[in-house]
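for the recovery benchmark. C-alpha cells below, seq after
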C-alpha cells in the first residue's frame, strides 16, 4: 500500500464546495467544528487576513488551504476575484495524524501544482455550468484536488517536519506504512526499526526528529485515532480493542483515558452531543 491509502481508509477525508464564481467584496469565513477550508483562486487579486497569521496578498492563481478551523477574511481588489471555495473535513478524530502534520495555513501557486491542471480544468468548468449532478461532481473533484495536494507535499518534500515529511523519507515511510496498515500488530521499537531497515537507535532518533514524537507514542496516537473514528461510527468499545492491538477492553480504556482525559464512552457521548 502507498503512503496515503491507509490514512484515507481510516479517516476518509471529504470536501464540500460552497462557492464557485466571482467575488467582489469582503467576505468572512468563520471557524466550524472539525472543518477546514480549501480555496482556489482562479484569477484576480485578493488579500487574506487570518487569525494569528500574517496578511497574505495573492495576485496569481493560487491554492489556499486551512486544514483546521480558522477564522479568515478575504478582501478583493477593484476587479474582484474568481474563486472556488470548499469546506474540508480530514476526519473528526482528535488523534488524527494528518491534521496534526499540516501547518495552520498553506499557500501555493497553481503553477507549482502542475499535476493538478486536468482536475482544475474540470473543476472550473463544472463550477461555471449547471449540469445535472453538478454539486456531486465538483465535490468529488475538490476531493481529488485535496489528494493531489497531499501527494505533492510528500513527493516535493515541501514540509521538513511532521508526518508528511516522514512519509517522504524512504526509510521512515516503510515503518509508518506498516503502522498504518497493521495497527493490531504487536509493534516494538525493534520491529519498527527492522521495517525501516535501520538500527534501533538511529531509527528512534531520526523518527523523533522528523515526526516530533517517539515511534511508540505515534503508534498509540494512530491507534487511538482509529478508536475515536470507530466510536463516532457507532462501534462499541468491546468490539474495537483487538482491531487496534489491545488485548482487553480494560487496557484500551486505560490508555484512552490517559491520552484523551475521558473514558471512551464519556468521550463518545460528549462528541456526539456537541
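predicted aa per position
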Amino acid at each position: 500500500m502507498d503512503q496515503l491509502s491507509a490514512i484515507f481508509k481510516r479517516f476518509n477525508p471529504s470536501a464540500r464546495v460552497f462557492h464557485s464564481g466571482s467575488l467582489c467584496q469582503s467576505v468572512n469565513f468563520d471557524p466550524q467544528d472539525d472543518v477546514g477550508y480549501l480555496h482556489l483562486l482562479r484569477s484576480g487579486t485578493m488579500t487574506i487576513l487570518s487569525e494569528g497569521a500574517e496578511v497574505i496578498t495573492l495576485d496569481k492563481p493560487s491554492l489556499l488551504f486551512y486544514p483546521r478551523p480558522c477564522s479568515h477574511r478575504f478582501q478583493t481588489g477593484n476587479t474582484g476575484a474568481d474563486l472556488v471555495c470548499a469546506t474540508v473535513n480530514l476526519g473528526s478524530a482528535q488523534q488524527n495524524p494528518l491534521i496534526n502534520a499540516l501547518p495552520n495555513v498553506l499557500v501555493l501557486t497553481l503553477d507549482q501544482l502542475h499535476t493538478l491542471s486536468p482536475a482544475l480544468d474540470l473543476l472550473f468548468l463544472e463550477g461555471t455550468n449547471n449540469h445535472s449532478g453538478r454539486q456531486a461532481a465538483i465535490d468529488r473533484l475538490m476531493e481529488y484536488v485535496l489528494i493531489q495536494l497531499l501527494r505533492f507535499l510528500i513527493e516535493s518534500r515541501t514540509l521538513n517536519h511532521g508526518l508528511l515529511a516522514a512519509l517522504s523519507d524512504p526509510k521512515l515511510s516503510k515503518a509508518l506504512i506498516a503502522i498504518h496498515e497493521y495497527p493490531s500488530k504487536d509493534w516494538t521499537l525493534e520491529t519498527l526499526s527492522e521495517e525501516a531497515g535501520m538500527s534501533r537507535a538511529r531509527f528512534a532518533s531520526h523518527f523523533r526528529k522528523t515526526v516530533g514524537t517517539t515511534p511508540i507514542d505515534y503508534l498509540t496516537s494512530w491507534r487511538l485515532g482509529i478508536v475515536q473514528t470507530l466510536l463516532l461510527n457507532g462501534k462499541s468499545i468491546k468490539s474495537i480493542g483487538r482491531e487496534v492491538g489491545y488485548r482487553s477492553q480494560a487496557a484500551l480504556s486505560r490508555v484512552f483515558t490517559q491520552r484523551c482525559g475521558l473514558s471512551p464512552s464519556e468521550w463518545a457521548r460528549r462528541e456526539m452531543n456537541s
